[in-house]
Amino acid sequence: MIAPDSFKAFAPEETQRILHHLQQPAVFMNMTCGWPVLHWTAEHLSECLGDKLVRFRLGRKDETKTPLFETQCSYVEAKLEHFLNWTRDHAGRDVGPFCEYPISAYWAYADYKYIAMLFEDQPSMFEDVKWSEFGFEGRDGKESTLWIGTQGANTPCHLDSYGCNLVLQVHGRKRWHLFPPEDTVHLYPTRIPYEESSVFSQVDVLHPDPQRFPAFQGARAHVVTLQPGQVLYVPRHWWHYVESVDPITVSVNSWIELEVDHIARVSEAVTKAVVCALKSAPSDDNADNWLNPTEEGVGSHDENMQYLNLAVRSSAQQQRSLCHRKHTQNERDARPVKRDSRGEIRKHCDMRGESVPFRVPFGPHLIPVHCRQEDPPETRGLTTKDVRPSRDCEVKSLEDCTARSNALQRTELASAVNPSVTQCRQCESADTKSQNNSEDYEEPTDTTITTNGLLECLVHPDVIALVTGLLLERHTGSSRTSAPSSLCNSPSLSNM
């Protein structure tokens, strides 16, 4: 009989296959049983780190209807013991530099802490995280980051240009608000503050300003509250806003590239060259704090151009490899093949010779994060906090989960095949709005174009995708259609 703490929902090889087929966020249940990292409470980590100083980001709890970017936060370096004393709000306890920030008005976040650097003198801590059980051989906590926050601590809504994320919730709960890549047009992307590989949203997704960002009402939020022991998979290019729900939360994040996207790297190199060139130029309106604290510094224009050329060459090499692979595949397809009783070519077969197309095994051990707008009335508002990771799990059957997923895929496919329906509705809405507002139109009082205003247009994901396609067409012979379409799904640039 298998011991409860050794039960794993999926074998490493099966998990890898699932990750390569997942197209939406999903929560893995019953995959971290027995991982020592689940004992990493803030108290335990305080004992391990002792007098080591950790940098915390602090933000006010005020609602301003604008994102609180990392460039606008306060920062302190303190021991975890100071942090714990501060959160407990006990008079007379040593809270170190937190003394200037009342806990009633501020939240604190030790974010993006590389475990390899935090525990460089305690390498045995790396082994407490076992990403190898997700099919990443040899991968442990050394390649991960640690996040410790108080209630209300948050990460501004953004998307990651490279790779995907596996997030293990260790202690407390975090709520994730996720938006698909197609919603980029509704999220008003910006590259100021600048951080390589991160595109931020100008919208406070919890308290949006409908006057400034009317298109946000078309965004489709997928919301899930992550529980201790659960692992969230965030696909590449999915927008996400993360907030801590409980008084203290601890999580471990592993950023992974299932397959290197060289075109995305060209796009980032173009963005970096443009942003750094304009923001490094002295001018009256260039005095803002535009570089995200996670960035190490600003490279020279020559360095940025060298980076761009390396990215273009890598993309060209990838294109040649793909062409060679396709040519080899065509030759292989020309060989004699096995056919079934009807004379049709057999696909991948199981041991019995039957076709076995892969289906993501949604069910009690893998929960899809659905869009709130698409949930049926009886389940709307439910998150994985309503699902127990034990054997008496309250989730619906595998058939129900699969049917629901297939229905969602059919809806998305219909929209993709016949986008004119959606566009017509958008046009009708825009026409009605134009008629209603034509009499109330007022000439803008300030028509001055600032450096940041210019950058919002120049490095908008749609524009960068077009420039990337042109560069690759000119220097590698690739078609412009090979530009990263996942970041340019809007029908126009009207919402820049």
Automatic annotation (TrEMBL):
Q: Which parts of the chain are coiled coil?
A: none
Q: Which GO terms describe its cellular component?
A: cytoplasm
Q: Where is the composition biased (Low complexity)?
A: 482-496
Entry annotated with the keyword Cytoplasm: yes
**Domain JmjC per the UniProt entry, residue ranges:** 111-271
Q: Which UniProt keywords apply?
A: Cytoplasm
Q: Which PROSITE patterns match?
A: JMJC
User: SMART domains annotated for this entry?
Assistant: JmjC
InterPro entries annotated for this entry? Cupin_8 (IPR041667), JmjC_dom (IPR003347)
The question of whether Glycoprotein is a record keyword is answered with no
What is the protein's known function? May play a role in cellular stress response.
Q: What is this protein called?
A: Hspb associated protein 1
From which source organism is this entry?
Answer: Labrus bergylta
